Amino acid sequence: MSQPSGSTSSRDEEEIEELKAADAKEVHRAVREEGEEEVNRPAASLLWSGLAAGFAINASLLAEAALHTGIGETPWRTLVVSLGYPLGFVIVILGRMQFFTESTITAMLPLVTRPSMWTLKRTLRLWALVILANLAGTALTTLALTHLPMLDASLRDGMVSVSEAILHHDAIATFWTAIPAGFMIASIAWMLPNAREQSFLVIFAVTYAVGVTGLSHSVVGSAEAFTLVWAGKIDIGRALFVQIAPAVIGNLVGGAGLFAVLAHGQVRPEMPDGGSDQ
């Protein structure tokens, strides 16, 4: 005896809906709601989570240093060493820690959807607290790794060698190379709602592309800059004003100024009041 066609059809439709990727409007809403939760978090929560992210992102530098130490001079050395770059991002993003470049889009969407002075203040508050906490985390962690007996000398030397790549960029070059990096990292937050079980691969692919091309990321770049400061290679002024500050601004331009605005622009005409789908 056959099953009622109505229940079978309903079940098939539910399975199809589960398999369908969310459209741009649904992704916009998911990312925006995440941003609304973030801008309303207590300052202490943002600071502690941002500090944890600053600690964790150093896994990228450590992994690159280990690969750099184990591989001799070869034409493909950069391709292999850069395989370590995504590790910190995987920990931070899948661990749901507050991360500056990811928050450029999540916090920006509520602002462009419902512009107001209150939302602007909350967005700026979020960015300021998170970047300060991220930088504090990278500064403290790299200080410990370079001065305490946590690593062997070869690995510490590897951290310095990997970090010296940022010395090829002056402030202007750092700013311009930070724009595509900000755009690409912001795109991860946009893709994750549809990534599901492939979240790891999405994060790995995008961040590997950032690392292997030598683009400037404000938080990873700060870990590299602070490593060079603690090793006596550069002074704190260069670290802050040539390497870190231009990268922060460039990441903001790429993440909030370009990706978030473009992502909002593609769905804005479909929203009932031209701005909000609520």
Protein model, in words:
With 278 residues, the protein is mainly α. It has 14 helices and no strands. The protein has one domain: Up-down Bundle (Glycerol uptake facilitator protein), CATH 1.20.1080. The chain is 76% helix and 0% strand. The model has no long low-confidence stretch (mean pLDDT 90).
Number of strands: 0
CATH architecture: Up-down Bundle
CATH class reads Mainly Alpha
The H-level CATH homologous superfamily, spelled out, is: Glycerol uptake facilitator protein
Organism: Sphingomonas palmae
Pfam family, one: Form_Nir_trans
Keywords: Membrane, Transmembrane, Transmembrane helix
Protein name: Formate/nitrite transporter FocA, FNT family
Outline of this structure?
This protein is mostly helical. It has helices spanning 5-19, 24-39, 43-56, 58-70, 77-81, 86-94, 100-106, 108-113, 117-147, 153-163, 171-195, 199-212, 218-230, 236-267.
